[in-house]
Amino acid sequence: MPDSLPRPHPSTWPLDRSHALLDEARALVPGLTLSMMKRPEHFAPGSFPVYLARGRGALVEDVDGNEYVDFVCGLGATSLGHAHPALLEAARDALELGLVHSLPTELEVRAARALVGVVPGAEMARFFKTGADATSAAVRLARAITGKERVVTVGYNGWHDHFMFDTPGVPSALATLTTRLPLFTSDDEPRLLETIRSGARELAAVVISVPYNRCVTRDLLLALRDVCTSAGVLLVFDEIVTGFRLALGGAQELFDVRPDLSCFSKAMAGGMPLSAVVGPRAHLEQMERLQVSTTFGGELVSLAVCLRTIEICRDTGYVAHVASLGRALREGVSRAAEELGAPLRVLGYDAIPFFSFSPDAQRHVALMRDFQGRMARRGVLLRRDVNFLCAAHTRAQIEHAIGAARESLSEMRAAGAFGA
């Protein structure tokens, strides 16, 4: 697999193996795949690969042998790129030590030391496996600390019952304990602050994942910090996506606002399954009295790769590099769209650019599916909304993606996709 640009797709662009596997998965895998955000309907069904075979750097290859510049990046987990040599070395070395030991290992301590060393205000860290594990542990901890039960959530914070209280299979009683609020526009901000003030007596925590379609202000986060402090409510930053992307310490570092607890995963461990709750000792040490435990939190390979990922991100210009590449992608695609009269704009933060055709969800999805399919045909994989940069992306790949976007949008305009 070349290190820079994907091989041009043949005129037939075969996807036969992908579609055969998809047919088999329908009989074997509920929901077709293990993450709902990887399902075919989130891309461009029929004109998009379904199954990947391998990846190196920022390039991936599907099961039919087609190559792509990858802006999905394992849903944001592959911060340093696919098959990074240093991470592979760390994984191999850890494999020689065993997988899960019968007692704690030194790696737990070393990884915790490295993580609290790059998250402002953090003094302790507790490891889990998934982002939902970490946010759920933070909610339980907040309830134990405050003696209150209700929570306010902003953004997607995981699939567990207290977050997805309105989905099938969740007891209806849980809906009384969680309030989910949007933060897509500045008009949503007063309601969030007022909900915290008015619910102070029952509210244990506010769990916030900053929106990706716009950049919030430091003033908002400071106001959120102040109102939570006044109300005796713990402020929890969900940094599953923003950690090790907006800054090593995520949004809290970028905006210089300190939450009571924060949750990390994805880019923190370079693609390995690992998450963490971090915060000041006064809060984290109380987790000892909770029934929060996991056999695999101390699994050695993930901890070793996490430690190496933190070291690389800390000791290189990683954050500035991915931001610079993301800014070039955002500006280049938006400029091409504007020149072609296309409604596409790329919004949000440089390292996690958000593609938007329209604030109307139905129109956006229809246009984005068309665009995703045309981009894939040109060797570029995009998500429908927020996309990701990794350390392995190159300027040449960014220029390739911008050129592909210009060609794709030009075809869509010629086909009348944007209307009169």
List strands and helices in order, with pairings.
Blueprint: H1 16-28, E1 52-56, E2 59-62, E3 67-70, H2 73-76, H3 85-95, H4 106-118, E4 124-128, H5 131-146, E5 150-154, E6 178-181, H6 189-198, E7 203-208, H7 218-231, E8 234-238, H8 251-255, E9 261-264, E10 275-279, H9 281-284, H10 300-315, H11 318-340, E11 345-347, E12 354-356, H12 361-377, E13 380-381, H13 395-414
Parallel strand pairs: 3-13, 5-6, 5-7, 7-8, 8-9
Antiparallel strand pairs: 1-2, 2-3, 4-10, 9-10, 11-12
Helix pairs in contact: 3-10, 4-10, 6-7, 11-13, 12-13
What structural category characterises the helix and strand content?
Answer: alpha/beta
- Level of helix content? 25-40%
Intertermini distance: 43 Å
* CATH 4th-level superfamily of the largest domain: Type I PLP-dependent aspartate aminotransferase-like (Major domain)
The largest sheet is:
7 strands, mixed
